[in-house]
Design a protein that fits this description.
By secondary structure, this protein is mainly α. It is built from six helices and four strands, in the order H-H-E-E-E-H-H-H-E-H. The strands form two sheets. Strands 1-2 form a two-stranded antiparallel ribbon. Strand 1 and strand 2 form a beta hairpin. Helix 3 packs parallel to helix 6 and helix 4 packs antiparallel against helix 5. The chain is rod-shaped.
Length: about 200
Amino acid sequence: MKQLSSVLNGVLLVAVIVLFGLHFSSNKPSQEKVCVASDSTMVVSGDFGIAYVSLDSLLLNYEYAKKLSEEMINKEETSRADLNQKAKVFQQDVTEFQRKLQNNGFLSRDRAENEQERLAKAERALQELNQKLTNDLMKLQDQTNRTLRDSIVNYMEEYGKTKPYKLILSNMAGDNVLYSVEGTNITKEIINGLNERYSKTNQ
């Protein structure tokens, strides 16, 4: 049962490490251009414009990502509650069996053995349910990750058509970007665009 409660330990935040290696050849600038980043800092993109997006911040602020994460948490809590309830009933049956066994509460040896066999089957059923719920959650998490990735990448492809960037990198907790010119972080602009698009689709 410990497996079930640890399924989301990686959470959506880590499982969805999206690498956006998008090459926008159709927007190749013929000379140096100046673009305005989300914080209004002027950035020279040059002939090979590069920017990056902080994924941890994006996933925490993108409304669709928050919705998917909440659905995952609710599903995990519901599954855990169902499993815990069945485990509680099983434990009560085991306790009652042990009490009867100690007090000679069974009318015959056969009845005691039948009850013991029933409990063994119930225990196996619990283990199988635990595995099934864990697998279902992992499949749902994988599906959620792919859905979220598609949403972000599709937006980035549209975004890139109107921007001078040839490459937009992903950055998680500062792991991939050791140094950047101020203004090359376009996370806020991307979050605003994603949320605006999401809001329109839910009107």
